[in-house]
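quick one before i forget lol
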Amino acid sequence: MNNHYNIYICGVGGQGIIKTSVIIGEAAMNQGLNVVMSEIHGMSQRGGSVSTELKIGDYNSSIIPEHGADMLLSFEPIETVRGLDKVNNDTKIVFNTHPIVPASSDKPYPGVGNITDVLKENFKHVLPIGGTKLAMDAGNVLALNMVLLGAVTADDKFPLSKESVIAAMKNNLKPKFHELNLKAIESGYNWIKG
């Protein structure tokens, strides 16, 4: 790890972004690493933008500077585009390819294939994942955040072990959901590992 690792997480309200951040933060602390986090809830109750910033290592501020993220973890394609000011050419961009089209918008939603193509043309490490389908296959669409959490643990440079992430998940979620969430984590992990 180079003693520092910055993760920008974004999506829309109701996707489990905050819980994902809490689990990552707890996993980092369980591994003896310092972590600071900030949350921007936005319109979280209405499906609006939600983002969190986590900095693992010895930091005084939780805000990731422009182009300072080691990883962008996005739960929704347009939110991926909104978060691009945090990335640089070495940033890993992991994003769910399932769009959430705002009911209040009169503008057409851009094609996800076009978004993916533009990202791949401009950044070296773009990892699209069919997270929503994998969550449904695991047993519940609400397990999307665990699918994406599994996906990031598959990255060789991610500073946390899958085991510590699973332990933090179990500590933060009800036991009756552990089996579902374990399945979701494994499916995201295996998607990235191929």
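fyi The mean pLDDT is 93.
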